[in-house]
Design brief:
signal, Porin, 16-stranded antiparallel beta barrel, 335 residues, 3 helices
Length: 335
């Protein structure tokens, strides 16, 4: 059976190479792998492995339009370390919404991206985090990935963006594909703007994002009057290897959060990068304790796409019974 499958794969590859598939002009395969150890509060020390493969295809029409797609197999298959009885592996998920896949068309008019991509808010804002760790321990309870309202429905987003000089702007929409279960059909609209430049030897970046929706979840325990969220991020790379990122978001009560503030500081010398970040969700709207945390990383570049990564995260939920720490140490490889 396995030998027959190999024959089918080889035959299919040969057919694609000699057929109209050549219209794609270029196919690229990139990947990453991680191996190490992790643990923490009430977490047994254990080994970690993860592999991520991304396929990218690009092409160009006779009129000069470029087009392409990418698909992240890690999103499709799931983490090698999925928790038994907890997070469901992607291998058993219904991926009919094409999680991990996006398609774009680009020209003089700008770029339109469809699929599993960022809305205008997330696209514009820079996350207050520097460096990496194999288990993302520095992405603690107070960390904000700037998702905004992305994924409030099925996660399928259409984003338009246009760049000019040092500026870029974007607009996005996410539709409700199942009004009977998810909401009342009101879409999520997003807007974003970015700027990058240099001032007195400092590389500076700024982002401003907005998202809104009149979503109604038909749930007595959820504020269903809709949400209007705003965010601003600032980043700077100074001389001598120092860098800093600051981020603030007004979250309008979404997920019980009034606002979020984050800051990250980093330093790079030669192959070594060290960084720290802190973030806090203000939950005053619900009268609950703030949720915060801080993360630490140390990365050493071995060259050739390999890097030693150490990470630590402290998570504070305002209750000593649920506060916890995590750590990881290992090697990350890119191909």
């Amino acid at each position: 059976m396995r030998e027959n499958m190999k024959k089918v794969l080889f035959a299919t590859t040969a057919l694609l190479a000699t057929s109209g598939f050549a219209m794609a002009q270029e196919m690229q395969v990139s990947g990453a792998a991680e191996a190490g150890i992790f643990g923490g509060s009430d977490i047994e020390d254990q080994f970690h492995t993860d592999v991520d493969v991304t396929f990218t295809g690009t092409g160009e029409t006779d009129t000069g339009l470029t087009f392409g797609f990418d698909i992240d197999l890690d999103e499709e298959i799931g983490d090698n370390n999925a928790v038994t009885g907890g997070a469901e592996s992607g291998a058993t998920r219904d991926d009919s919404d094409d999680g991990g896949a996006s398609i774009f068309v680009s020209g003089a008019f700008g770029t339109i991206t469809f699929g599993d991509t960022d809305g205008g808010f997330d696209w514009a804002l820079q996350e207050a985090i520097i460096g990496s760790s194999i288990r993302d321990d520095h992405e603690h309870a107070g960390y904000n990935g700037n998702a905004g309202l992305d994924g409030i429905y099925d996660g399928q987003i259409v984003r338009y963006e246009y760049a000019f000089a040092d500026f870029a702007v974007a607009a996005s929409v996410e539709m409700d594909d199942d009004p009977d279960t998810d909401g009342d059909g009101n879409p999520v609209f997003g807007l974003g703007g970015k700027y990058t430049g240099d001032f007195a030897g400092v590389a500076f970046s700024a982002g401003l994002g907005y998202q809104t929706s009149d979503v109604d979840f038909d749930d007595e325990d959820v504020d269903d009057e809709g949400f209007d969220i705003y965010g601003l991020s600032l980043g700077a790379e100074f001389g001598g290897g120092f860098s800093a990122i600051a981020n603030y978001s007004d979250l309008d009560g979404y997920n019980g959060n009034d606002s979020h503030t984050g800051i990250a500081l980093g330093y790079t010398t030669g192959a070594l990068t060290v960084a720290a970040n802190y973030g806090v969700f203000d939950r005053e709207l619900d009268g609950e304790d703030d949720v915060s945390g801080y993360g630490l990383i140390a990365n050493y570049d071995l060259g050739g796409g390999a890097e030693v990564q150490a990470g630590y995260g402290n998570n504070d939920f305002g209750d000593d019974d649920v506060d916890f720490d995590t750590y990881s140490l290992g090697v990350a490889m890119s191909f």
